């Protein structure tokens, strides 16, 4: 009996883990990928996903081709959809600039102006832009698809606010009350 438990128990645990992973993958990929913009007083107008999380481009990537792989993808998870799902342009984003390229496991990575889009692992909430300028290779993306790198005029210490427009036209404004400074513009 003990030998049967030693064999069956690990198999049950593996099966349960596999089922949980399959359910997590299914729930994450059933949703449509909406790309929209938010306006930030320090950064200008930038692309975000449907939950307001920042979207980035990796400068070594080429139009239609991702170069981020392995450990890079652990820090910079790609914005992906099921192969049968098309990304949606939300408020401020241009539908004509949205597309996809092949990704792992039959998924498609969302592109904007032909370049793959990513999240940053340390941006856990809407309005966080911790990956901006990371390693001199990761930058936010503007509404026209350009990298957001060029500073805009200093805001003079009033802090920063982010105004998010949802897909139904409603807006939400959040602020950090911090001390101003230079930002970035989609130039």
Describe the structure.
- The chain is an alpha+beta fold.
- The chain has one domain.
- It contains two helices and eleven strands; from the N terminus they run αβββαββββββββ.
- Strands 1, 2, 5, 10 and 11 form a five-stranded mixed sheet that branches. Strands 4, 6, 7 and 8 form a four-stranded antiparallel sheet that branches.
- It is globular.
- The C terminus is likely disordered.
Question: TL;DR?
Answer:
The protein has 187 residues and is α+β, with helices and mostly antiparallel strands.
What is this structure's SSE topology?
Layout: H1 2-30, E1 34-40, E2 44-49, E3 56-58, H2 71-75, E4 80-82, E5 88-89, E6 98-102, E7 107-112, E8 115-116, E9 138-140, E10 161-165, E11 171-175
Parallel strand pairs: 1-5
Antiparallel strand pairs: 1-2, 1-10, 3-9, 4-7, 6-7, 7-8, 10-11
Average pLDDT level: 76
The ordered string of helix (H) and strand (E) elements is HEEEHEEEEEEEE
**Unreliable sequence segments:** 8-30, 155-187
Portion of residues within helices: 10-25%
Indicate how many domains the architecture comprises. 1
First CA to last CA: what distance? 71 Å
Q: Biggest β-sheet: count, sense, barrel?
A: 5 strands, mixed
Number of strand segments: 11
Helix/strand-derived class? alpha+beta
Q: What portion of residues belong to β-strands?
A: 25-35%
Q: From the alpha-carbon coordinates, what is the Rg to the nearest angstrom? A: 20 Å
Total helical segments: 2
Shape: globular
